[in-house]
Specification:
This protein is α/β, with parallel strands linked by helices. Helix content is 37%, strand content 15%. The strands form three sheets. The protein has a seven-stranded mixed β-sheet with strand order 2-8-7-6-5-3-4, sandwiched between helices. A four-stranded antiparallel β-sheet has the order 9-10-13-12, with helices on one face. Helix 1 packs across helix 9. Bound molecules: pyridoxal-5'-phosphate. The site of pyridoxal-5'-phosphate has 14 residues, from helix 3.
């Protein structure tokens, strides 16, 4: 059967966000890095009112996403204090989650034996997963075991050889990285600044609202850079799938060519606009989350079995000191049985900072198992 399917697809598994068996207890979902707080009720009611009275479900959504793009541009400029070379709607493309934008970038660059992507592991797995489904080769670099800085000598070797089909055309980095929670270093930023213009540099700022570090102010100097952002994390809209890319207008035009015409439902566009209109309120919980991160970090550091790294995001990366990955896999399942879901990845655990109550339970359950 399935003789019509591409041979290379047969080996892949469908992506599963929360792998593992059935759930029998109430779960603290701390493996996907969302904001632990839902939209406030009054904003949900406002959105429901918009849906009930204004949104025509028989009509296609605004395919150009005009209002949303201009609201995003305003937000980006304000949050970066950009007055000189401001971001305009022509610098923005919107996706059904930033996952869609990652796929569009891959289609626009490497598809059809036109090159490879470079990632330094451990990092966000979606770059590799999406590249593989498109038959695009992935060149993997590595990171320091001490602070997860990218091995730049190795990266440089990969990026400059070989030429032809296997040549690296796109470099993907996350700022700060997932799962390891470290921001780009000065050396890494310098390396990205000096990459040749025929290489696309994708800087994924999914956690910008937590880290408050962005390269957006430098974008105008680098027409080969794309910044990715999302409404799925700090902005509390993971259910509605909205991400955006910020780049030179010529790069944006290419993304606009590649995307599906009505990629973002009207309801999602309305929700993202509402979130931006109320950004101060929605992002108002970030100081609490960061303060919780510091308490969680201190408590994890006090556990002798764990090695814990600093975090610039809303999650913490930790490994067992005696380092057995197989034991981590077992413990992840045991924790899930107790009601705490965390992500086992890259030889460690990535633990989302939740509400104070969730974090207390995480600590208590970790203390029971490690
Ligand atoms: C969560 C996350 C995203 C967001 O993806 P969406 O498709 O917008 O939900 C993108 N990049 C990284 C690194 C992430 O961790």
């Amino acid at each position: 059967m399935l003789d019509f399917i591409r041979e290379d697809l047969k080996q892949f598994q469908a992506y599963s966000p929360h792998p593992g068996g059935a759930v029998t207890v109430p779960l603290d979902i701390l493996d996907t890095n969302e904001n632990p707080y839902d939209l406030p009720q009054d904003l949900k009611a406002e959105l429901a009112g918009h849906y009930e009275h204004e949104l025509a479900t028989n009509r296609y959504p605004d395919g150009a996403q005009t209002d949303l793009k201009s609201a995003i541009a305003t937000y980006v400029n304000r949050s970066a204090s950009l007055t000189a070379d401001p971001i305009t709607p022509d610098h923005i493309s919107v996706g059904n989650g930033s996952d869609e934008l990652i796929r569009s970038l891959l289609i626009a660059t490497c598809l059809g034996n036109n090159g490879a992507i470079f990632t330094a592991n451990p990092t966000f797995s979606m770059y590799r997963i999406l590249a593989e489904t498109l038959g695009i080769p992935v060149v993997q670099g590595s990171r320091s075991e001490t602070d997860f800085a990218i091995d730049l000598d190795l990266a440089q070797t990969h990026v400059h050889s070989p030429q032809g089909q296997g040549a690296v055309r796109v470099v993907f980095v996350v700022h700060p990285n997932s799962p390891t929670a470290n921001s780009l270093t000065a050396a890494e930023l310098d390396w990205l600044r000096n990459l040749p213009p025929q290489i696309l540099v994708v800087i994924d700022e999914a956690y910008f609202e937590f880290s408050q570090t962005s390269v957006v102010a430098e974008l105008s100097e680098h027409p080969n850079w794309v910044i990715l952002r999302t409404f799925s994390k700090a902005f509390r809209l993971a259910a509605l799938r909205v991400g955006y890319a910020i780049a030179h207008p010529e790069v944006i035009q290419v993304l606009e060519k590649v995307r599906l015409p009505y990629n973002l439902p009207a309801f999602s566009q309305a929700a993202a606009r509402l979130a931006l209109a109320h950004h101060a309120e929605l992002l108002g919980v970030i100081p609490e989350i960061l303060q919780q991160r510091e308490s969680l970090h201190a408590a994890l550091t006090a556990m002798p079995a764990l090695r814990v790294w600093p975090s610039q995001a809303n999650f913490i990366y930790t490994r067992l000191r005696n380092g057995e990955d197989a034991r981590l896999a077992t413990l992840t399942q045991i924790l899930k049985g107790k009601g705490t879901l965390i992500r086992h990845t890259g030889g460690g655990w990535r633990i989302t900072v939740g509400t104070p109550e969730e974090n207390q339970r995480t600590l208590a359950r970790l203390q029971e198992v490690v």
